Amino acid sequence: LVQLVESGGGSVQAGGSLRLSCAFSGYSFRAFCMGWFRETPGKEREALAYIYNIGEDTFYPASGEGRFTISLIHANNTLSLTMNNLKPEDTGMYYCATEGFSGAPRTKARAVCDASRRTYNYWGQGTQVTVSS
User: Which one is predicted more confidently, 64 or 58?
Assistant: First the structure.
């Protein structure tokens, strides 16, 4: 039912910026989390940013804080990840994911969206980001 399609990846020099997009459709959740994740060879999948639709609170794990911004663009049903000051270690395949749940508690994204607390069942196909030094 829910479909996610990432775009916006590519190659960029260190220090540059990219904006990733995740177009979503088929959504009918009252409360949901959306997140951006990164996979690189030899490394565990890493969560970069989350947003909780109830209040649109965000949560950034250490690897993304200060440089990444997650947002919902309601006009075109798109999740965005704006990445600034990119570093070579940011290279990887970026995925968006989402999961809805019952109720709509007004709380912080870190309390309900962290992948250690919630299973994400809907994923996009990924978009590659390569940062050169």
Answer: 58
Cα dihedral across residues 103, 5, 21, 37: positive or negative: positive
Label residues 29-56 b or e (16+ Cβ within 10 Å = b). eebbbbbbbbeeeeeeebbbbbbbbbee
For the record, the structure tokens of 99 come out as 């999961």
Q: Do the bridges between strand 57-59 and strand 68-73 make them parallel or antiparallel, or are there none, so unpaired? A: unpaired
Both tokens assigned to 127: 């978009």
State the Cα–Cα distance between residues 99 and 32, nearest whole angstrom: 6
Smallest CA-to-CA distance from 118 within 33, 16, 43 is with 33
Give CA–CA dist 84/87, Å, rounded. Answer: 9
Residue type, 73: I
Question: Can you tell me the distance from the alpha carbon of 96 to that of 70, in angstroms, rounded to the nearest whole number?
Answer: 11
pLDDT tens digits, 21-48 = 999 998 778 899 999 999 998 899 999 9
> What pLDDT, on a 0 to 100 scale, did the predictor assign at position 49?
96
Q: Give residue 116's region: left, alpha or beta (phi > 0; psi -120 to 50).
A: alpha
pLDDT at 116 over 80: yes
